[in-house]
């Protein structure tokens, strides 16, 4: 990195509590940083920490010139206000793209976010790399979370797809999904989309990570 751009970028991760999968994701990010020549910084706080302690950690990284990106691993413990915490990350270092100013810019025509949430961005990248045309196509996003579904729908719309969003209150998800040329599914429960929901030839990306019991596995 230093040879390419003259500085060694720094990524700071704040992990609150000891959720197993969160710890795995954070470990993977650290490894990815090492292989890409990025310095990684990590703050681990106990589950019982106060919101103020998390805000203090963010503030220190906001002021640290060797840190260029700040990730607050989600979900946070339920006693913390996620909005307050995500608002505290300076938008120039909001590499997750979760600050409302970055989400707002993503939603507005003629505006550019400084950062776009990585998973939806990865979905669009997959479509591009596989040569899937997006422009003018009907796309359905299943799920509307701030971190995947909503930004995925906005990105598809920016690529000139006609987008529908299916969520838990949608009355006829099967009928809507069957019209799609492109489906991005981001739901926290397994086996939601059935074969009969998919138009032959449609392209589908499943973002969900949902463990299921496998009786045939020893
Ligand atoms: N591969 C990756 O990089 C990533 C994967 N994930 C995985 O993606 C999945 C979704 O994550 P996330 O978006 O954070 O989850 P959330 O729980 O925040 O959102 C789930 C969404 O699914 C919708 N939903 C739930 N049940 C139904 C249903 N029966 N029919 C239609 N819609 C439904 C919810 O609707 P409503 O809004 O109405 O409640 C909500 O919008 C998870 O499995 C997660 O582990 C997440 C992040 C990154
Ligand atoms: N602030 C914040 N930013 C996030 O980006 C964020 C988050 N919080 N909270 C949780 C979700 C989930 N998420 C994943 C990232 C990579 C894989 C991934 O690479 N999965 C590997 C397997 C990983 C493994 O389980 O070993 C795979 O699907 O092949 C999965 C999920 C990011 N999230």
From TrEMBL:
Reactions this protein catalyses:
(6R)-5,10-methylene-5,6,7,8-tetrahydrofolate + NADP(+) = (6R)-5,10-methenyltetrahydrofolate + NADPH
List the pathway annotation.
One-carbon metabolism; tetrahydrofolate interconversion
Q: Does the keyword Hydrolase apply?
A: yes
Q: Which family does it belong to?
A: Belongs to the tetrahydrofolate dehydrogenase/cyclohydrolase family.
Q: Which organism is it from?
A: Rubroshorea leprosula
GO function terms (MF aspect): methenyltetrahydrofolate cyclohydrolase activity; methylenetetrahydrofolate dehydrogenase (NADP+) activity
Q: What subunit structure does UniProt give?
A: Homodimer.
Query: Which UniProt keywords are listed?
Result: Hydrolase, Multifunctional enzyme, NADP, One-carbon metabolism, Oxidoreductase, Photorespiration
Mind telling me which InterPro entries this protein's record contains? Aminoacid_DH-like_N_sf, NAD(P)-bd_dom_sf, THF_DH/CycHdrlase, THF_DH/CycHdrlase_cat_dom, THF_DH/CycHdrlase_NAD-bd_dom
Quote the protein name from its UniProt record. Methenyltetrahydrofolate cyclohydrolase
This protein's GO CC annotations = cytosol
